Each structure stands twice: as structure tokens, then as C-alpha cells.
Amino acid sequence: MTQKTCSCDFTSAKGRGGKNITRLSRFKPNFSWTGIKSEEYKAEGEDWVDIVRHGLIGNQGETTKFHLRYFEIAPDGHSSFEWHNHEHVVICIRGRGICLAGKKKYQIGFLDTLYIEPKMPHQLRNPFDEPFGFFCIVNAKRDKPKKVLKA
Amino acid sequence: MTQKTCSCDFTSAKGRGGKNITRLSRFKPNFSWTGIKSEEYKAEGEDWVDIVRHGLIGNQGETTKFHLRYFEIAPDGHSSFEWHNHEHVVICIRGRGICLAGKKKYQIGFLDTLYIEPKMPHQLRNPFDEPFGFFCIVNAKRDKPKKVLKA
Asked: Which stretches does DSSP call E strand in chain B?
């Protein structure tokens, strides 16, 4: 079975530009939004594939101190096991998933909201048979994730 | 009919304290979350009543540069018509509602995401017959709303 892996952060789509103007991004039943392109990332040195990210807020000229992204991890996929100084807020909106955070393991379902503290090693996993989709809110200015080797 | 009105911002529940630790706030079918108290506000000089707010992220010790709140406006309710320098990100998760932003009027349904630019006069309304519930993400440091008199 192909492992589908992603980092919980990526190089953002800088340079797309845009204007800091009011706009409605309408939700579509396939978990995409009008005016928001999905992005499949292949960051240098990363080993994940087939991961979808939608940058809802943060790369179209907004000046918010935060970015809002939607990630979807396919069945059997998972993110890197990593840590960073910045915090995560994760809100599940599709399917369900697992988050490892330190020694704890959380199952996350619809609209469950997980706060991940600074420096906490964490990994998001989808061991289920439907896509695991979630909003992830982070500070606009943030450090890069560092990988953790699991014991 | 009683008008149910709220401001799109409130004095946050400072002083509640708490620790900056990883936690899961589990969603409950009545649109509340474990560990998150609902708050009914009566700010000085405001005229709204019966409005529910849940401060999901921002008043339990988190050091994020943003706050995440859930608001619910009852049928026939609306927020103040106001503006401020900070931006809003609104994500509808319950029912539907209307947002006036400048001269534009947006209908917002499930998972539609509205970005409201700085200084834009705006008002959220619920002319429908079920609760209109939405996440609202704002910068942690932000200016107070200023009321606008409608023409």
C-alpha cells in the first residue's frame, strides 16, 4: 500500500499576490472553495505524495497575523512526525483522523478542535477509509518544522 | 419581534488564565465544545441580548497571534453595523446567514469562508428560521469596533 505523507507545513504559495479585499470563498461539495486553487506539494527533501492543500487565507494579499489552510490526508496517509515553535489549531471538517501529540493520541471527528502547543512533537494520521480533511490555523510568521525520529 | 443583536467583537474573557498546553475540545451536537464555556455578553453601551459566544482559542493561555471564536446568532438577530482596522475571517458551520460588507450583501452557507478587509463596514444578520453559527478568526491584538450609522 502506498503511504501518503505530508508535512503539516509547506512553503506557502508566496508571490501569488492579490489584493487585500473582501471576498467570499464559497464551499463546494468536493471540499474545495471558489477562487482557491488546490495545491499538490513536493517540498525539497520531503517524501509525501498526493496531498491536497488549499490556502484559504494568507496568500491572496491578506494582512492577517494568521493563515488558514485546509488539508486533506487520503486514507492510509499521514504527516511527518515533527515539531516547531509555533502553535497549531486543527479543526476537522471531513471524515476523521488521529493526531499523535507527544505521548498522547487523539481521535478527531467533525468540528473537534485541537490545540497543539509550541514545540510539541506531533503527527496527523488517517487510518480510516475516507478522506481526513481539516482546517489548520497558524501564525503568519512561523518557524519551519523540524522532523522527529520516532523511538 | 425581539431583535437579537450582537457586536462582532466583545471584551474577551481575560483573566480566565489557563495553561498553554495541548488540548482537544470535542464538538457536541448542540454546537458547543468540551471545556469551552458559552458566554452571554452584555458589554457597556451595547444593546444586544441572547447572543452566544464560545471562545475556542485565545483565552486559555494560548500564545497564538490569533483568536478563534464561535458565534451563534438566533433567528431575526443581527450584529452591530460597524467597522475596525482588523480583518475578519468568517466560516459558517451552522445554518446560513447574511453579511453586509460595504455595499455588498453575501449569503453565507455551510463552510463558506468570508474574508472581510480592514475598515470595511459590516454587519452579520440572520433572517432565517434556524440558528446562524460561524467561526470568526481575528488577530489577537486588535482595535475595538466602531459603530456605523446606516444611511
From this structure: 4-6, 23-25, 27-28, 32-33, 38-40, 52-57, 66-73, 77-79, 82-83, 88-94, 97-101, 104-108, 113-116, 122-125, 132-139, 146-147
Residue A114 belongs to a domain: yes
Q: Spot the catalytic one: A6, A92, A99, A136.
A: A136
CATH of the domain at A133: 2.60.120.10
CB-based contact (8 Å) between B112 and chain A? yes
Structural domain boundaries, residue A96: 36-147
Q: Could you state, in chain order, the average pLDDT of each consecutive group of 10 residues for chain A (151 residues)?
A: 51 55 96 90 51 90 96 90 95 97 97 98 94 97 88 56
**How many contacts does A have with B, using Cβ atoms within 8 A?**
119
Q: How many domains does chain B have?
A: 1
* Alpha helices by DSSP H, chain A: none
pLDDT value at position A80? 84
ipTM metric: 0.89
Grid coordinates representing B108?
A: 453565507
pLDDT in tens, B115-130: 999 999 999 999 999 9
Identify whether B4 is part of a domain: no
A61 Cβ under 8 Å from any chain B Cβ: no
Identify whether B33 is part of a domain. no
